[in-house]
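I hope you will forgive my troubling you with a question about protein structure. I set the record out below, with my sincere thanks for your time.
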Amino acid sequence: MAFLTESELKSTYYPEAVNMPTGDMSKYLARANGYVFGQIGGTPPAITGDDGSGLKTAVAMAFEIFAAGETQSVDPTNGNVTEGAPTSAYSKQKRALESVNTMLRPYKTAYENANAAETDKGIIWLGGL
């Protein structure tokens, strides 16, 4: 499931992707879509008043974070992780993804609410007492 397509990424959400090599763009976009899918837990239902642009923006932000984090630490010639890579690249990427997680919170909540059983809304039933 792709929340954001390559054409949407290039035209609206991250126009700079037009200049990226196609393989790199596809790789980071797949990672971003996968990350968002994993954080939400699945495909969220429609949210009243939301046109889906918030979800697409979150995917585009994850795309940008993944692309920047990888290109800072990978040798562009052979694809190996460089020894001279910034030591804090991972921690910066992890902190930046916290912003994406915050953006995804309403979608995760909507998904969980749509997939929770009626008796599962915060109550644990203890049987046999």
